[in-house]
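P.,

For your records, the input lines for the assembly:
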Amino acid sequence: MTEAADAHAPATLPKTYDPAATEARWQGAWEAAGAFRADPGAPGEPFSVVIPPPNVTGSLHMGHGFEAALIDTIVRFQRLQGRNVLCLPGTDHASIAVQTILEKQIRAEGGHKDDLGRDAFLERAWSWKAQSEGTIKGQMRRLGYSVDWSRERFTLDPDLSAAVVEAFVRLHEQGLIYRGEYLVNWCPASGSAVSDLEVEMKELEGQLWHFRYPLSDGAAGGIDHLVVATTRPETMLGDTGVAVHPTDPRYAALVGRTITLPLVGRAIPIVADEHVDPAFGTGCVKVTPAHDPNDFAIGARHGLPLITVMAKDGTMNEAAGRFAGLDRFEARKAVVAAMEAEGLLVKVEPHRHSVPYSDRGKVPVEPLLSTQWFVKTEPLAARCRDALERGEPRFVPERWARVYRDWLTDIRDWCISRQLWWGHRIPAWFVVSETDGVITETTPYVVARGEAEARARAEERFGAAAAAAGRALQLEQDPDVLDTWFSSGLWPFSTLGWPDETSADLATWYPTSTLVTGFDIIFFWVARMTMMAGAFLQEGEVPLGGRDTWIPFRDVMIHGLVRDENNRKMSKSAGNGIDPLPLIERYGADALRFALVREVAGAGQDIRLDYHRASGASSTVEAARNFANKLFNATRFALMNLGGETPASLGLPPLAELESEDRWLLSRLARTSAQAAELYAGYRLGEAAKLLYEFAWNDLCDQYIEWSKPRLAAEDPADRRVARGVLAYSLEALLRMLHPLMPHLTEELWHGLTGSSADTFLALQRWPQPEAAWVDAEHESAFQFGIDAVRAIRNLRALSGVKPAEKLSVGIHTATAARQAFVAANREKIARLVGAANLHWEPEPTAGQLLGIVDSDAQVGLTVPLQSLEALRSRLEKDLARAEKEIAGLAGRLANPNFAGKAPAEVVAECRENLAEAEAQAELARRRLKELG
RNA sequence: GCCCGAUUAGCUCAGCGGUAGAGCGCCUGCCUUACAAGCAGGAUGUCGCUGGUUCGAACCCGGCAUCGGGCACCA
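Structure tokens returned:
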């Protein structure tokens, strides 16, 4: 109760809002109370979100902050709607990224991971993870993320690791995982294979070397050599053929003959293959099946041998002969030099081409033949495509569905093994006793859930033969780990308890309601999750557990990226990431959240945060901070004027007792509440933010509070009680509506306003339910006249140059009885708002007044010595010009017979009204100008 | 090469068939006891160009230009 008492002692409230202490206090209170702990048994329709787990690679940047703001806004809104909400946090182990960081650290210390050994390295990785995770969780708390920390997960947690093993075993049993020797993207920097998605094509200025390859057995048809072009001379050492197009007349006679490969001396065949473009270069292509994906395909078609000339560290191997040991780029120079020395270099041309780079390693990837594990993707992708045909999942904005679908079409198999240590070890055990104690391409293996199961399975298959041969079975687990995205792909169900199908969390919250993520990981993650779900959350075509779908989320909201002040994508490697913390410290988490969300109204567009790196200032966030301060002061004002009462104690007065501004505000409130709910629910969060901003600042503060001020301080208790009731009710409703966007501030102000005890939270209240019947266009337009009249009078005052403090005699002239009644009823309020000594309202203006136009039916007048006729004249001329321009346009339209004939009747009627209005205004302006002489 | 997005006030962006809005910035005047992180008043745009559809286009359709992004990739 001390809290409420404090809140109701306005003298103690400062004039500006200080977010830091307030935000920390509520974050602590929510967490201590377990306010966001989800309960499968709780009432309400389930609503769930699993947050995209950030990598434990350091800290969160503004992009994460943006995503957090979006997710938390959605989640808090749904909580206010009474849904049984789960918002599940977690982090991702980010195999290759973390290992890269650690290896770099170790190298900087002068060591090497191989000297450290696997166990020590992993120990170090875990401590890095603990530190990074701590930082990230601290940042999430600072943002006010309303997640259920009791359900926090990390992808390497024991239960999630068990899920990974289970997934691997089942996919293997389904025949969707296989092991084989293929050309993979090898990243020499990380010493591991990477998937196609981890390769980025870079356009580079390179060179095209033309080599002469002599025919083995002399000239044929006048040709004794072929010229091939290559961007990678060093690979010629592994050439096992030369290809020409089957219909190319120049070379038809040569197909089937052989070339003697220079520098190597190997005889290699000339083959005919459709892949060759006769128009490019000489129309002859060297074929290096072990070092180029296209050549690999050509080689396969023609049975060409695979000769690997490079080792996994990017140096040439023994098969490269005298070039062995050279780095691939040195080897390139050496091969070119050798060819030139032999007179076989025809020419070198500059050549722009795309080079595959490793995303993580930042070096060119090497297509390298190696034995890896793969997921057969087509069957899984097919299920996802079918689901998408049915509209599952629903993408917001819709256009991303196509991007997702296109990627799932013509999808290639997914290389999932990584030659790394940090990650989920592949649950496959090689029966090395079958191959002399070492792992080779042909060593048999068993896939199992653990070593014991592996041993049992191995025993079953190889035990008898081994015993017969007098060998003891010897098992060795595959040293490699799985692609990080393999475990991320299970995230929406592994975090909910899968593979335990009886898990209450899974039963309650799967499928999840909404996935919020960036367009840059639709392939990496969204598609992998749907594919994995397709393998495990359905049986045949039927979703498990009696669900209506196995797709892991109903909606996928795709957001844009936060770009830096120079419009660049933020990234760790570019070092241009913006840290949210300094902005939070400077302006408050609520301000940052509000700014980020308000900026996003254009669905799915990238946002640019204006941010002056040197000063740390951001005018966008500052504007949001100012808004927070406005709300703070509005509430402060309310507390000073409610006489210690609360929304509950005041209640809402009967409609019959309400005055114009009360009815107007409640009508606006009812509209706003309905609209804002619709916008939030439809993920149009930026529009919701703008709508509420306008309601709060324009309607509640600028209009309602200013109009009702005299009543709030009125002598008569009955009188002021009505205004207090309306103010308290509306402000409280506003705080509820803004809570998803600015959780801490609204929680604080709500407690101040309602006097609720510290263990009751706005976060757990309900969305306001104003009566739909309060929406009343007539009351709104009646009051709008008051607003317009006040503005016209103030404008006139400004033009007249009278001192602001000077009280004037003011007239409002209208022939409409209802408007006269409005002025009469609100005389004191209006007089106060415009600084009038007395306010009168006759139908027609009296002589000697300075007049201004409200509309065709109303003028306002000041009795004032004319000081600046010029200002007034130019104002009237402007009014006239505007009216005349409007008349011209409207009259033109009405004169068009097609318009009257084809446009909807109400549009035509409106047009006529506007024309009459404009004509009347023009006439008034002309008269006033004439009077001015 | 294929696909997608953007182009609106000085800046950052909303609006997406009935004749243009916000925030910041700018101009004028105000410390009017909720708020100067504020109040009042004000100015500012051939809505990228070009055809078309329509009674009517910033908004729909076609083309073009510029910028950004994704996918594929010929040595």
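Two observations worth noting. The first strand of chain A starts at residue 46 and ends at 50. The mean pLDDT of chain A is 92.

Regards
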